[in-house]
Amino acid sequence: MPNKQYDKQNYLSILDAVETLSSIVDIDFEREIEVANDEEIKEQDEMVTAHTMHWLETEDRQNTVKHIKETFHVVHEYLKDFYEHEYSYVSKPKVMEGVKTIMVLVGEAAKKLDKFTTLFKETKERSVKNLKEYRDLQEFYLTRIARKIDEGILGKWILELTKGSMAKRKAKAELKAKPMISVKHVFIDMESVKNDTEYELFFLRKEDGSRFFNPRLIRNIKLTADFGQKIRSKKSSDPLEQINIWQDHLIHVAARNILQAQGGILDRFFREAKESWRRELASELYKAVVALMMCACPKNLLSNAPTKACTEYFIDFHHFLRNAYVTGEYQRYLAYPPKKSSKMAHILMDLVHGLSRAMFTRIKAYQQLVTVFEKMVEEANQMQSEEHQKAAEESNTLWSRLAGDYAALSKMMKTHPNGPLVKVLEVLEKGAYHVFDPIAQLNLPGVMYSLFMGENRITNLHLPAPMNQGFIHQAEIVNEFKGFLRAYMSGQFKRKHLLFNFQDRTSWKEHVRAVNLEQLSNQRLFSKYLTVVSLPKDTDFYHQVSPYQDDHQAGLFIEHFKDNLSDESCGFVFPFYLSKKLFPNFINQLFEGVHKLFFHERNVLSVKDRLDFIEIFYMLLELKIIEEEQPATFSMTCKDGIDIGGCASAELFGFLKMINNQVLSNDEYMEYCTSLFMPAIISRERIIHTDRFGRMITAFKRIESTQQEMGKKAFAKAFDELLGSLFHSPILRSELAFPRQ
Predict the structure, then answer these.
(1) For the CA atoms of 710, 714, 716, 720, what is the dihedral angle to 10 degrees?
(2) How far is CA 331 from CA 289, 342, 487, in A?
(3) What is the C-alpha to C-alpha distance for residues 187 and 423, in angstroms, rounded to an integer?
(4) What is the pLDDT of residues 303-361, one digit of tens each?
(5) Taking the CB of residue 385, how many other CB atoms lie within 10 A of it?
(6) How far is CA 705 from CA 98, 401, 621, 658, 708, in A?
(7) How far is Cα 377 from Cα 372, in angstroms, rounded to an integer?
(8) Do 218 and 164 form a contact (C-beta atoms < 8 A)?
(9) DSSP secondary structure code for residue 453 in this structure
(10) Which residue has the higher pLDDT, 355 or 83?
(11) Which of 621, 635, 536 shows the shortest CA–CA distance to 583?
(12) Across the strands, what pairs with 36?
């Protein structure tokens, strides 16, 4: 039986072992050989995460040799575990190809270490191939798995995929733009793939047309995904076994919501357009509506094993809707608005914009998964220790209950075989990596919750960046988002959408998306219906790293915070008219209030204090902007609306509940957690990132701890005096509600 310690830990280190072997095999031996390690390097005055190496030819030969031995041992234990649990798969060609590929890496790495280093010359073994770990690995493989190693195999799949990923580079040869120096040598590393932090780069090209990934990375992803899935699947059941059925059901609900929102326009469309199907706009809309109806039909749910599932019909609907926007007829109506007497033209324009508006403001799908999520949390907590379960039951604060459930879910999700790796692999195998387009890739917008201030209702939307991006320096707003804004222009009551843009305009990864959204809100046509406020959540200041890590003096920290807020080069952008309302009076008073209430006006603030200060300040600033803008809808938008945006939305909801001393009922709590966790699970097959969740939880802990220290009545009184007085509407006393079907 496999070693238990290996079961718990080493199945993860196989990623590092494969990466190390690949580094040795692929290295340019005009230089010294290296062993993989992650660190940060500074290139072109910008910090970039790169996969660098530590030299093998170091004075610490003992540790280096130990590392090589450990690499062979990990591969050996990995294959033993695979063989013992998956013997029936050994005869399958695809599985054998993967095993052979790993062993080719082992053999090639050993040859190159012997040839190009002197590491083992002074040891008793005299050669890598004489190491006990290497010999044991080779013996096990030769006697148990294969009769000979086919050293010519590197995987036809890898070769074909590599060719496919670079096939269009020649077609882009005419691109004359000067390459972006800062990203010329930047590639996605394995750590980023495992953590799912930069997956959008798989869809993008650099300015010169090249990719951010290379063949070695693809090979490593495939190896770890193929074998990790089989080994981990034997440890316990997969909690996301039915994820495709869940997603298909969500999309089915989304289609129903969109259709229901159209009201009588569909009847008028079918009645008036009977003789106009040959017109290009009517034709595309007809196909879009029919596809949407098929998606809304329960018979086409994936759980019913249909010929074509709801998800596929929704993809068709979205395709036809986008086609409608690029027809000559639609463009003509935009340039020359039809007369009131042109009934058919108005019906077509109302329908195309109405469908788009419903896509962004009427989908209430995640609430359909509350029961699924509740069961998932229950199972996750049962996997925890009795001590953990008891602590979870006794928790009487929101932050502690969330933290406990997050810990349980994180542990359970480890039994899901390489979720992010599999997602990336699916994209590569399907060849669907030509553009980053979250909405087209089924990360759909949706209603999360609403704020009620008397008769005013303001709805929070889950909204990924509404962009289509193929190159790192080029992106465009998708037409359906512009159609949604045009729908806000029509009718008796005009509406506005407020978009909090958390993308970092100071980063080469997100600059073009952030700036394009800002520019859209500045266009005369859309400026009354869209407000974009950029509040970056991935800068050095936000994370309080160099050069801000030593800002322990409260005065210095606040001074630097103010400098960042007023400087676009630091990532913050406010519309001019809004800036006049916020600066300097409100901003100064907000700093004073937060510092006094939550930090007792201390002169020295630790890094943890400053991180919480930033988080609380952001929430109050967001509420003030909502008060000033009075939008119909608002969104916390990052690249995908999942981690940064998702936590920001949940954070604002929880903050309003806490300052009003409102405790979530169990049903409300489950709805709250479903809206927080399920977008990441459905879209990326993982839980939300720990660092983003951690920032929210520590801010909640700070607020609830302050309430407990002061007493709820005293806290409420102090809050009203120091911070409530800065607001001129009842927004801080808003009633909150989740959507209902």
Answers:
(1) -120
(2) 20, 16, 16
(3) 18
(4) 999 999 999 999 999 999 999 999 999 999 999 999 988 999 999 999 999 999 999 99
(5) 8
(6) 53, 14, 21, 11, 5
(7) 9
(8) no
(9) E
(10) 355
(11) 621
(12) 53
What is the Cα–Cα distance from 641 to 125, expressed in whole angstroms? Answer: 55
pLDDT at res. 227? 58
Q: Report CA Rg, the chain.
A: 28
Residue with tokens 């098929």: 294
Does pTM top 0.85 for this prediction? no
Q: For the purposes of burial, counting CB atoms within 10 Å of the CB of 670, is it exposed (0-12), middle (13-18) or buried (19 or more)?
A: middle
Phi and psi, residue 213, nearest 5° = -130, 160
- Exposed, middle or buried: residue 455 (CB in 10 Å: 0-12, 13-18, 19+)? exposed
Tell me the two tokens of residue 478.
Answer: 């998708």
Token pair 């990132």: residue = 689
Prior bond to 464 cis, omega within 30?
no
Could you tell me the CA-to-CA distances from 390 to 179, 381, 385, 393, 395 in Å, in that order? 57, 10, 9, 5, 9
Tokens of 447: 């209603």
Q: How many other β-carbons are positioned within 10 Å of the β-carbon of residue 162?
A: 20
* Residue 169 · residue 104 · CB < 8 Å: no
Q: What is the mean pLDDT of residues 537-543?
A: 96
Round to whole Å and give the CA distance between 606 and 556. 12
Give the CA angle between residues 615, 728, 644 to the nearest 5°. Answer: 25
pLDDT of residue 236: 57
First to last CA, the chain: 52
Measured CA to CA, the distance from residue 476 to residue 738 in angstroms comes to: 32
- CB 472, CB 205: distance < 8 Å: yes
Which amino acid belongs to residue 601? E
Residue 38 dihedral angles phi and psi, to the nearest 5°: -90, 135
Q: How many degrees, rounded to 5, is the angle at CA 158 between CA 156 and CA 164?
A: 105
Burial 547-572 (b: 16+ CB within 10 A, else e): ebeebeebeebbebbeebbeeeebbb
CA distance 717 to 695: 26
88: tokens are: 């029936």
426-448 confidence digits (pLDDT tens): 777 776 668 999 999 999 999 99
Per the structure block, which two tokens stand in for 498? 């407020």
d(CA 442, CA 683): 8
Structure tokens at 566: 């007023």
Neighbours of 122 (CB within 10 A): 8
383, 483 Cβ separation under 8 angstroms: no
Phi, psi for residue 221 in degrees, rounded to 5: -60, -45
**CA–CA separation, 97 vs 109, rounded Å?**
18
Q: Report the alpha-carbon distance of residue 639 to residue 689 in Å, rounded.
A: 14
Q: How many C-beta atoms surround the C-beta of residue 172 within 10 A?
A: 13
The DSSP code for 211 is B
Q: How far is CA 659 from the centre of its chain?
A: 29
